[in-house]
Amino acid sequence: MSARIPRPMLITGRTEFIAHLGWPTHAFKAPMIYNPYFESAGIDAVVVPMGCKPENFAPVLRGLFALENIRGALITMPHKVSVVDLLDEVTPTVKVAGSCNAVRRAPDGRLVGDMFDGEGFVRGLANKGLVLRGARALVVGSGGVGCAIAASLAAAGVAALALYDTQPGAAEALAQRLRAHYPAIMVSTDSRDPAGCDLVVNATPLGMDPGDPLPIEIDRLEARTFVGEVVMKTERTAFLRAAQERGCRIQVGTDMLFEMIPAYLEFFGFPTTTADHLRSVARLEY
User: Fold this and answer.
1) Which of 42, 155, 202, 243 is most exposed, with the fewest beta carbons within 10 Å of its own?
2) Is the pLDDT of residue 212 over 50?
3) d(CA 213, CA 204)
4) Residues marked as catalytic
């Protein structure tokens, strides 16, 4: 049987678009998930990758939201932090994370932003049966995605969060924001020891390239600990393989991506779906 050739989406004068803003665009995966889903669900919308360098971002964002057929924007690197100051309203998650990856225009014209990296990560954990309320978690990496995951773990009710970054100031700044918004959570920044943790998250780029060091001392990792990854370049990073060898349950980086898209769809007002369905229709390339 011959392979099915994907039918190009038909874009008409009624098609709404979601701008996918970042630079460079070659690694963007969202269009290969959203657009097949829109086609399968009969939704007249399209995600369009738009390469935008930092010096042009502010005027580009304002110009895009002056258009009448824009439904919203996905914001990715290097704009997740700078976009916050361009918005009229943001959620508590954005305030803790210090970054934003989704923008829509309210009926009164205000630009509203939210952050779903952490929400996708947490939804994936919940769907795998991990109970976060009262848990102890370690998040290695206090960059944009690490901050977002920490914010969503706090909102999910963890009891303790250990934060670690090679730049201690970044971890401490995140800790201060968490303490301000979630004073009941015990937050620390002095260790990346995974012993005693229910959850360990690699929120660093370690694992993108062969030979990268592991983000924690793997011999301190307990079999009962759940291990999550944000690197999407490969499904099973060296860290995840090492965790599995120690008996740990894992979550791969792309799970975060698939699990956050239903939340995005809800934010933009589209009919939502499940991560499993998105995986079944996606046309990802690695």
Assistant:
1) 42
2) yes
3) 11
4) 80
